[in-house]
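Dataset card, provenance and construction

Sequences and ligand SMILES were collected as paired inputs. For each pair, a complete structure of the chain with the small molecule in place was predicted and serialized as structure tokens. The example below shows a pair involving glutathione. Curators did not alter the output after generation; any descriptive sentences attached to a record were derived from the structure itself.
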Amino acid sequence: MLTLFDNAFSPFARKVRMVLEYKKIPFAVVDGLAPEEHARLAAVNPRLEVPVLVDDDLVVANSPHIVAYIEHRHPARPLYPPDPALRAAALAWERRADTLIDAIVHDVSNGGFGFVPGTRPPGLIEAAREDLAPIYADLEDALAGRDFLGGELSIADLALFPHLTAVRFLDIAFDGATHPRLLAWYKRLRQIDVCRADLERTRAYLRRLGLGLQRPARIMWRGDRIEWLLARGFHAWFCAEIAAGRVVWPGR
Ligand SMILES: N[C@@H](CCC(=O)N[C@@H](CS)C(=O)NCC(=O)O)C(=O)O
């Protein structure tokens, strides 16, 4: 039996869960970021990150590796396009979603829960808009003549979907008038069962937590998310966060 260490707010975990559901693979779920599950998560991933997939005695961490593992073990309903060029492009989109797009969305949302009004570093939204603009333009181009980025539904679409949902709530969304193919793609995905279920789960999770725009006391920071902040010149803000004891580092 497979067990997924999941969290309904993690774009990486959401991607993996949609893959499992799309392939109709049975699995058990543990909310790996729930405080009461901390020890169980630590036992399978010392970095204390979700997602993690446990397949009997075998542990796979890091979402693109988990997807590759699932695809290898369960090839039916493939999510890697069979055409080599489309496959390479789909994996490149997955990587862009996991790295730069995740970093921008995470940093603008301050870890997912938003900034207390008036505390967002000046210029952050503008920097995010600037760096998302070429991505939206590339997506618009990539969707010319096709419904999905890999031809059929692929890992590219499922990796991007959680992020392109989040941007709508952060004032950094694409404009449907200038990106009509992207808007049509987004609406198309929302009609797909696994994407609909994903959105419903995330909404229910947020309702359960009763989240307004409250910041968590401490946020776990890592690689790409820090890189984008520093590259865009927000080092003073980030150092102040560290100095204030609000930064948690992944385990080793
Ligand atoms: N590269 C990893 C990144 C996973 C990751 O950053 N997970 C975040 C949630 S989005 C996490 O578990 N953070 C720990 C925390 O917030 O406590 C992957 O693709 O799976």
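Derived descriptions for this record:
The first helix runs from residue 11 to 22.
The chain has two domains: 2-73, 84-109+121-209.
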